[in-house]
């Protein structure tokens, strides 16, 4: 879905290569459909059904009781400005699936971090990819981002370095990443 519309994909289709469209929606319900589509396209329906059953169990085991903790997801890769995940992002969907609150409200998509916005959001936990943390020069430099040191997460150094593709990809690895996020949030003071 996310590759559409693409000139390259159109050229591939025009050369009579079968193109299968896999849902790209950042939604837990989309994971089952992704597995079904891929299993069908690769003629592995039985294995796909086994995986789908396992995924349904993993999804059913996700926490259903909300936890009053605010999470700030920071997207940071080498050479780019650190960005905060707003509403209608994969990070927002994953945070909510963990029964937590996205600390960044009032905007959609990813926006550059601002001191005022970060301080107003008052996150209890900062989530960032390990690669993003490395790009910043490590955890000690994370707290130098605008306003972060003045938040509850910054004052108590509450950070979770996570596999961002597992968390944001809404794939077979996502339920485990969401469980990891929830478990870390449950450890917060």
TrEMBL record:
Coiled coil start-end: none
InterPro entries: ABC_Transporter_SBP (IPR050902), ABC_transptr_periplasmic_BD (IPR002491)
Pfam families from the UniProt entry: Peripla_BP_2
Fe/B12 periplasmic-binding domain location: 1-189
PANTHER family: HEMIN-BINDING PERIPLASMIC PROTEIN HMUT (PTHR30535:SF4), VITAMIN B12-BINDING PROTEIN (PTHR30535)
Record protein name field: ABC transporter substrate-binding protein
Organism of origin: Enterobacter cloacae
């Amino acid at each position: 879905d996310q590759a559409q519309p693409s000139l390259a994909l159109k050229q591939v289709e025009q050369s009579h290569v079968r193109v299968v469209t896999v849902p790209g929606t950042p939604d837990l319900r989309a994971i089952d459909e992704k597995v079904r589509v891929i299993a069908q396209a690769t003629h592995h329906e039985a294995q796909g059904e086994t995986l789908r059953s396992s995924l349904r169990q993993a999804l059913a085991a996700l926490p259903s009781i909300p936890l009053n903790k605010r999470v700030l997801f920071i997207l940071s890769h080498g050479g780019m400005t650190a960005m905060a995940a707003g509403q209608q992002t994969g990070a927002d969907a994953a945070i909510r699936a963990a029964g937590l609150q996205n600390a960044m409200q009032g905007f959609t998509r990813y926006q550059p971090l601002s001191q005022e916005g970060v301080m107003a959001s008052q996150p209890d936990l900062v989530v960032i990819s390990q690669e993003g943390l490395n790009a910043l020069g490590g955890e000690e430099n994370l707290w130098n981002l605008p306003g972060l040191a003045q938040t509850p997460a910054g004052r108590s150094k509450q950070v979770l370095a996570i596999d961002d593709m597992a968390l944001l990809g809404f794939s077979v690895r996502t339920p485990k990443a969401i469980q990891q996020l929830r478990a870390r949030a449950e450890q917060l003071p």
